[in-house]
Specification:
It is a multi-pass membrane protein. Its main location: membrane. It comes from Actinoallomurus iriomotensis. One of its GO terms (cellular component) is plasma membrane. The chain is 75% helix and 0% strand. The two termini are 17 Å apart. The chain has 2 domains: 190 residues, Up-down Bundle (Growth Hormone, Chain: A); 197 residues, Up-down Bundle (Growth Hormone, Chain: A), CATH 1.20.1250. α1 packs across α8, α7 packs across α15 and α8 runs antiparallel to α9. The protein is mainly alpha-helical.
């Protein structure tokens, strides 16, 4: 099947384009809300420390509660869970916006931010669950998951640019307001699309669903891998900014990171259009190893030009690795906990990003950009070692259907 043809056929599935578009719009805030919060609080209060604490509270709420909100969607249905969750998210964000304008105490701002993060709908996991329900057992599922991976890359590249322009050129609150508006609109648009909503399966009805703390055994390996990988990505971001600044071209940091994301997005599209015979476990391990190998070279780069080329090439491994990881979870998790299972991986990556930012920032302050890249390399090696140690948990149950074994999923 041709690459473009597989994507066209996936999006031509009944209702697919509508829920895919709603999910993309709704999760645009992921690339905007953290930076938007920092820009708003810092601009109004003049306190960057407080701005970072408020943003961190939102990240903590999101990371800690996302598996629970995703599990509620599995248990009661997306259409029933999304409206009240979205309303709570909107109210908490409105409280944060009002609190900043009224110069509320820091604890109140952090509380509102934490509640907003906790109530953020798990649209990425929900959309992937819809794809799984719609295309399960089809070779088109890999193409669908690849589209979601590329959408994530687009969000993380365009979101920070958009929120910065709005916050600096329109109003300090404009970026966060747009982030909240897109989240609310996308969530409600997804909620009303009941025809493509995954069916609700009573707890314990699916095989292997009863009595499990984690919804997929592979998460014992994949969650810590995701944590280390998220820390690696955060360290790369900070170290790249520092590296560009040390070489007298700080504005070029965005282009360097954009090249990294471009490589990831391009490889994600290519990966999703291919037919694969290697197992999911092998593909996940090889792409993770390739990402780790590329990251391990960043600290030795002599200048910006060489670094740009190496980052572009290293980024090629990122999306295929994430696609394979989500595919493993999709194959292992029982249908009634699939959204929750995927949210565990995204939550682990989010926690890793927060931890990695803090650790890499301290290292860069004392050892410079190369120290930050060394931190990223250490996280990458830790992710690969964790994967190899827990490789036995990454097998998929039973013989994979030919459509999945040879085409895969994300």
């Amino acid at each position: 099947m041709g690459g473009g043809g597989s994507y066209r056929r996936a999006l031509a599935s009944p209702g697919a384009l509508r829920f895919c578009a709603a999910g993309l719009a709704g999760r645009m805030q992921i690339g905007m809300v953290g930076l938007g919060t920092v820009l708003l609080v810092a601009s109004i209060t003049g306190r960057y420390g407080l701005a970072g604490e408020v943003a961190a509270a939102g990240s903590a709420g999101y990371s800690l509660l996302s598996p629970l909100t995703a599990r509620l969607a599995d248990r009661f249905g997306q259409g029933r869970v999304l409206p009240p969750l979205t309303l709570f998210y909107a109210a908490s964000t409105a409280g944060l916006l009002a609190g900043v304008r009224l110069h509320a105490p820091g604890w109140a701002l952090m509380g509102c931010s934490g509640l907003a993060g906790a109530a953020t709908p798990q649209l990425g996991s929900m959309v992937r669950a819809r794809w799984s329900a719609l295309l399960g057992g089809s070779p088109l599922l890999q193409a669908a998951f690849s589209l979601e991976s590329v959408a994530d890359e687009v969000i993380f590249v365009t979101g920070p640019v958009l929120v910065t322009v709005l916050a600096t050129e329109v109003h300090p609150a404009s970026g966060l307001e747009l982030a909240a508006a897109t989240c609310v609109a996308g969530s409600l648009l997804l909620a009303v699309q009941r025809a493509t909503e995954p069916p609700v399966i009573p707890a314990g009805a699916a095989r292997g669903a009863r009595g499990l703390l984690l919804p997929a055994r592979g998460l014992v390996t994949l969650a810590p891998v995701g944590l280390f990988f998220g820390a690696m990505l955060a360290a790369i971001d900070l170290a790249t900014v520092a590296f560009a600044q040390e070489h007298g071209h700080k504005p070029l940091a965005g282009f360097l990171l954009g090249g990294y994301a471009l490589g990831s997005a391009a490889s994600g599209l290519w990966y999703g259009s291919r037919t694969w015979r290697a197992s999911l476990r092998r593909r996940f391990t090889l792409t993770l190893g390739a990402a780790a190998a590329g990251t391990a070279t960043f600290w030795a780069m002599p200048g910006l030009t060489v670094l740009a080329v190496v980052m572009l090439c290293s980024g090629l491994a990122v999306s295929p690795m994430l696609i394979s990881g989500f595919s493993l979870i999709e194959r292992q998790a029982p249908p009634n906990r699939r959204t929750e299972a995927m949210s565990w991986l995204t939550s682990a990556i989010s926690v890793g990003t927060a931890v990695g930012s803090a650790a890499a920032g301290q290292i860069i302050d004392t050892a410079g950009a190369r120290g930050g890249y060394a931190c990223a390399a250490a996280c990458a090696v830790a992710a690969l070692a964790t994967c190899l140690f827990g490789l036995g948990r990454l097998s998929v149950p039973g013989p994979a259907p030919a459509s999945i074994a040879h085409a895969d999923i994300r």
